[in-house]
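2.7 Reproducibility. Because tokenized structures are sensitive to small changes in the input, we list the exact sequence used for Homogentisate 1,2-dioxygenase, including any N-terminal residues retained from the expression construct. No trimming or masking was applied before prediction.
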Amino acid sequence: MPYYRMVGEVPRKRHVQFRRPDGGLYAEELMGEEGFSSDSSLLYHRHLPTAILKSEAVEPTAATALTPNLPLSPRHFRTQDLPVNGDLVTGRGLLAGNADVRMSYVATETPSELYRNSMGDECVYIASGRVRFESTYGVIEAGEGDYVVIPTGTIHRWVPEGRVTAFTIEASGHIRPPKRYLSKHGQFLEHAPYCERDLRGPQEPLIVEGEEVPVLVRTRGGLTRLVYRNHPFDVVGWDGCLYPFAFNINDFEPIVKLTHAPPPVHQTFEGPNFVICSFCPRPLDFHPEAIPIPYNHHNVDSDELMFYAGGDYTARRGSGIDVGSISLHPAGFTHGPQPGAVEAVIEAVRQGHSRTSELAVMVDTFRPLDLGPAALSVEDPAYAWTWAR
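Resulting structure tokens (single pass, no recycling of outputs):
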């Protein structure tokens, strides 16, 4: 993260004695990226964070095999048809992925067990409902429209308040704000579409008592369940620039032009060989002769996966796309508005229509995306031919 925060109790200097009320030492834990050479935080535990009692391999409960997008085709998947299943960790239905990123969808009402992803950062978009995110850093209350970004190695769990649906993005590395939004010292610049005030981190420590506590751990080797001697939620304070945070998509400030602006203006985060973009309600392009709708485009270096989260998709009318849909437009395919959409929106502007209402999350990858079993189970087989009607 680009700025420093302190929560709870910490000593005046790093790596000095910090004693509990009974005279014993708190156990210091450094959570750091890129081999001590990037962002980090120091956490102070009541118990040793290294004390484990048992380790056992865990077999995956969901299908995770990926299938190449062959024959090459644009795709439409209807997440609305996926069942409520598991929890916000184990219930993820794999939609698409490659060596850099994996995207899933989950609908659940069940609290998750404690979980640590040691393969990379996660970005979880809450599509509907409310959920309590608990971690060693504290609590974040999240709801519809929130991105929750979770650093690699963070022990956490999800506690839904009723039914929750989410679109999850699991990276092979770190997810950060785009560099072009930040000064060389890490402060958000004035042209950035959001800033530090829009980010919500834990406000106070979360202390939970417990012994022999299992934690599901994902590594590149697979899944393991470690049993800790004491509950990992025993941190009395932490400080640093690395921590989970939430950002609501409605706090994204769209960048607009006289004529239609390309997707980079919607970029919200970046990861290894992929970007995350937020398409939010905004004024339509306002040149008197503008075509206020996306032009046909072929992003030759990227596959584009779009989760339609809310609003009205004028450019896609007639395609079958609706709230909860996911489209995949691969490199090698030119895509754009549905037939008739351009003239329809020009006429709508003549009638006084001046804003879009669309809300969507897009992931552009710089390596091809393969297809997951959840996506293939809810695919609309007619979508690829809708431009030829």
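The first helix runs from residue 341 to 350.
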